[in-house]
């Protein structure tokens, strides 16, 4: 299968309206506003940007559009920025798709939150489109769907086979101590 080629950056501007946000133009004609605050706050590499926010404004296009550069030591790859742009635009999963998934599974906000390992409030934010749905959450919904389909198939197979069967008994000497051994312990 051929490798998918991700777009490259052709222009970058720092968005003056929102901190830690870049406006990017891509070689496929798309443009994105990308909030990179999560990465800036999470990685040691970006500590100089956290300590001197003015340095963030010096963002410039790297060689061949493969990254954004702040200094010789500080950069962010086009691949990372494209992924963030897609997530923040809801391209991994739209709010409507997320709500449809929850309703199809007959999950309440609470049960969806437990199934995904996130807070109830985040489920509500994702459904309302107030927060972008991260790729890991979108993938988790797909995994839960696949797991649910597998369990449904198993139920159908059990029903077709004459109903549920009792748990098989352990063979003598397997899973429990022989009576003689039990008497010795007493």
What is the topological layout?
Elements: E1 9-14, E2 21-26, E3 31-35, H1 37-42, H2 47-51, H3 53-56, E4 60-61, E5 67-69, E6 75-77, H4 78-88, H5 95-104, H6 109-116, H7 120-128, H8 135-160, H9 179-185
Antiparallel strand pairs: 1-2, 2-3, 4-5, 5-6
Helix pairs in contact: 6-7
What is the chain-wise order of helices and strands? EEEHHHEEEHHHHHH
Radius of gyration: 26 Å
Strand content: 5-15%
Find the count of extended strands (DSSP E, 2+ residues): 6
Described by the principal axes of the CA atoms, the overall outline is elongated
Distance between the termini: 66 Å
Mean pLDDT: 83
What is the multimeric organization of the chains shown? single chain
Please identify the structural class as seen in this structure.
Answer: alpha+beta
Low-confidence stretches: 163-170
Report what the structure shows.
By secondary structure, the protein is α+β, with helices and mostly antiparallel strands. It has helices at 37-42, 47-51, 53-56, 78-88, 95-104, 109-116, 120-128, 135-160, 179-185, and strands spanning 9-14, 21-26, 31-35, 60-61, 67-69, 75-77. It has a three-stranded antiparallel sheet with strand order 1-2-3, covered by helices on one side. The protein has a three-stranded antiparallel sheet with strand order 4-5-6. Helix 6 (109-116) packs across helix 7. Residues 163-170 have low confidence and may be disordered.
């Amino acid at each position: 299968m051929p490798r998918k080629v991700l777009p490259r950056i052709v222009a970058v501007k720092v968005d003056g309206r929102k901190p830690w946000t870049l406006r990017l133009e891509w070689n496929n004609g798309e443009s994105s506003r990308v909030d990179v605050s999560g990465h800036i706050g999470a990685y040691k590499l970006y500590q100089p940007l956290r300590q001197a926010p003015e340095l963030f404004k010096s963002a410039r296009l790297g060689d061949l559009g493969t990254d954004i550069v702040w200094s010789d030591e500080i950069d962010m790859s086009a691949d990372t920025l494209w992924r963030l742009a897609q997530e923040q635009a809801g391209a991994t999963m739209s709010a409507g798709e997320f709500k449809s998934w929850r309703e199809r599974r007959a999950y309440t906000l609470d049960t969806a939150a437990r199934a995904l390992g996130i807070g109830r409030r985040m489920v509500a934010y994702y459904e309302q489109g107030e927060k972008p749905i991260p790729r890991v959450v979108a993938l988790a919904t797909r995994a839960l769907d696949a797991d649910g389909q597998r369990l449904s198939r198993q139920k159908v197979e059990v029903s077709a086979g004459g109903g549920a069967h009792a748990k098989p008994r352990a063979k003598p000497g397997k899973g429990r101590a022989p009576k003689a051994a039990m008497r010795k312990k007493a």
